Amino acid sequence: MDRRQFLQGTIAGTLAALSLPIGAEPSRKPPHVLFILVDDLGWTDLGCHGSSFYETPNLDALADSGIRFTQAYAASPVCSPTRASIMTGKYPTRFQITDWIPGQDPKDRWLRGPETRLQLPLEEITLAETFRAHGYRTYYIGKWHLGGKGYDPEAQGFDDNKGGFEKGSPPGGYYSPYQNPKLEDGPEGEYLTDRLTDECIRFLETADQGPMFIFLSFYTVHTPIQACERHLSRFDRKWQAWIDSNKDPCDEVFRAEREGWTRLRQDCPKYASMVFAMDENVGRLLARIEALGLSNDIVVIFTSDNGGLSTLKKQAAPTSNEPLRAGKGWCYEGGIRVPLLMRAPGVTRPGSVCHEPVISPDFYPTLLELTGLPLLPEQHEDGVSMVPLLKKQSGGLDREAIFWHYPHYHGSTWTPGAAVRAGDWKLIHFMEEERLELYDLARDPSERMNQEARQPEKRDELMGLLRHWQRDTGALLPWKILFNGKNLDGWNVQGDAVWRVEEGSLWGGQDGDTSRSGLLLTEESFQDFELELEFMIDEHGKYNSGIYLRNDPHQAGWTGFQVNIGRAEAGEYCGLYHKDWLHKGDELDEVRKKMDWNHYRILARGARVLVFLNGVEIVDYEDPDPEPGLLQSGCIGLQTYGAEGHDGWVRFRNIRIRGLL
Q1: How many CB atoms lie within 10 A of CB 356?
Q2: Within 10 A of 255 (CB to CB), how many other CB atoms are there?
Q3: Mean pLDDT, all residues of the chain
Q4: pTM for this one?
């Protein structure tokens, strides 16, 4: 029996013993839940968060009727990881959804993002599955972006699905026909945001049939920036009036951000019309809830999956998150801080404001507690219930820090990195340059005054927290590309062998009859790592090759481990060597491909080395009494060796390495 069967078979039988929802009278039924997620909506895109150009009267009214969080965070600066985090109560590193699906890491940079899973694992018990197991009817409406057939909302606990499939952007744009296999086309010209709201209202109107969990995931305001035509003229006039009266005090429209540009003011009428249409439809939902007499029987949550799109390579981003720095794709505040409004009858007090940091995994235990369902701490292991904050708006939650891991490149010009916030302090690790930035958000919410050099103890404390969390959650670091396929940049040559680049691979060997041996050594050193490469070796005569691990570039020969990958007159072999044979691999005839490309994966942590050849483990060795030098960082070496009279060769390609946490 798998976890889902266990959940269905055991939790469903506990309904009679459940506690009442928070704040409920003994005779009250379980409350409905309406979770509204907007795509790419920025922290300052709401009037209640300071926008003067965009208009959100209905959301402002929702904030006045419940609680507004000023320091709510998405679990990622891009969409899919945050969505997975909301559904599971976990940080996305735990199941390796660390980029938007399928991602788009460039191939011309020295780092490559780690492999990201392309669908939410079925082993996870989603919020929808938990609600359904306790008698709730579950409905999904809108953007899914967590997998296609077999991994869509219907496969993840939702009874019905209108519009959710693997794509992240509306394939047909915001007007019917939608080109969406999960949403029938409406009349020509129907606006997608209106249509999704219509579907949600149809579900709301079945409230008398039992408790509902409705997840409404608007595609808006994701690109394409396609105006809601009925509102466009309103904001064209508004922007023209600003220009005519010179009301906008910001003379600078864009500011450089690394290789990109960040928009500094909200001035796009098309985007404003999309925000207004979204707000208008939230108003329709709230009005229908009231008309149905459900206002005191439904928990309403409104938030975004990441920060607003304010930073791009060109000066073309549609919105601004000022005073927060940067936007979608970045681990600066503009990319991860999001609006969050909640209304829970009997729990939240009208007009409340909370300044405590909260993050996406917190929704799972919060909703279970609000609806009186038992917590599932093994599932929502990274979430902390926000209910104490809903009641009193102050005081801290029981955790030391919150984290982000985004080890990928992004079109916003972000480069791989990670971040941690503990108290008011926030550290950002930029992996490409190995640069750290430290900010005191209480004094510097715009992240302009880097305190990394002035506060070394705080920097080291937060970096320690980040590393511990990354190890604990199984976070993967990006790959470093060691060979660019064009030249020997990043390598040093030792010995008298000949090395050259040939058809995108490294060729090493002899040009003649003399005995030659040589090494290519990386300029950079590594300590604990995972190394992958492909090799092909000459099958004639007495010839072999090796891969040196943690070699001292200042000493001749090898000083670390050597993985021997060649052949000798005695036959095929692979061994692990350090001044003597530490481990001999088995015969490789059935594993290694002759005169063809073979794949090596080598993991070195401390005194232990694991070697996989074409997916088969051939070495697992741990030195019981290693010399201290064996465990220090050192370079990676590629060896070629041929005896006199044997003109053998070896070729390497696709050489990459990443650190082990």
Answers
A1: 16
A2: 14
A3: 89
A4: 0.91
Q: CA-CA distance, 483 to 652, in Å (whole number)?
A: 9
Joined tokens for residue 560: 């670390």
Closest by CA to 473, choosing from 382, 550, 386, is 382
Strands (E) across 589-646 are located at: 598-605, 608-613, 616-622, 635-642
Nearest-angstrom CA–CA distance, 519 and 508: 9
Q: Locate 617 and state its tokens.
A: 């483990």
Q: What is the CATH number of domain 3-24+32-101+115-395?
A: 3.40.720.10
Q: What is the pLDDT of residues 253-273, one digit of tens each?
A: 999 999 999 999 999 999 999
Q: How far apart are the first and last CA of the chain?
A: 34
Topology annotation, domain 417-473: Arylsulfatase, C-terminal domain (3.30.1120)
Task: Count the Cβ atoms, other than its own, within 10 Å of residue 658.
Answer: 20
Q: Is 605 exposed, middle or buried (0-12, 13-18, 19+ CB in 10 A)?
A: middle
Express each pLDDT in 313-363 by its tens digit: 999 999 999 999 999 999 999 999 999 999 999 999 999 999 999 999 999
Q: Which residues does 88 contact at the CB level (< 8 Å), separation at least 6?
A: 94, 95, 120, 124, 125, 126, 127, 361, 364, 379, 380
Instruction: State pLDDT tens for residues 522-575.
Output: 999 999 999 999 988 876 655 667 888 888 777 655 567 878 766 544 445 567
pLDDT confidence of 16, banded at 50, 70, 90?
very low
Picking from 526, 514, 489, 502, the residue whose alpha carbon sits closest to that of residue 636 is 526
Q: Are 102 and 62 in contact (CB under 8 A)?
A: no
CA contacts within 13 A on the Cβ side of 367: 29
Q: Counting every residue, how long is the chain?
A: 661
- Find the DSSP H helices in 411-567: 456-473
Which sequence spans correspond to the domains of the chain? 3-24+32-101+115-395, 417-473, 480-659
Quote the Cα angle for 284-289-295, to 5°: 135
Which residue in this structure is represented by tokens 């000949």?
A: 498
Q: Which of 2.60.120.10, 3.40.50.10330, 3.40.190.10, 2.60.120.560 is the CATH number of 480-659?
A: 2.60.120.560
Q: What are phi and psi of 213, to 5 degrees?
A: -115, 110
For 388-420, the pLDDT digits (tens) are 999 986 678 989 999 999 999 999 999 999 999
Q: Which two tokens stand for residue 235?
A: 């904001």
The stretch 208-212 carries a mean pLDDT of 96
| Confidence at residue 556, expressed as pLDDT on a 0 to 100 scale | 58
Q: Note whether 200 and 212 are within 8 A (CB).
A: no
Picking from 367, 372, 496, 476, the residue whose alpha carbon sits closest to that of residue 431 is: 476
Q: H-type helices in 246-313, by residue range?
A: 269-291
Determine the distance from the C-alpha atom of residue 621 to the mean position of all C-alpha atoms in its chain, rounded to a whole number: 34
What is the 8-class DSSP label of residue 597? -
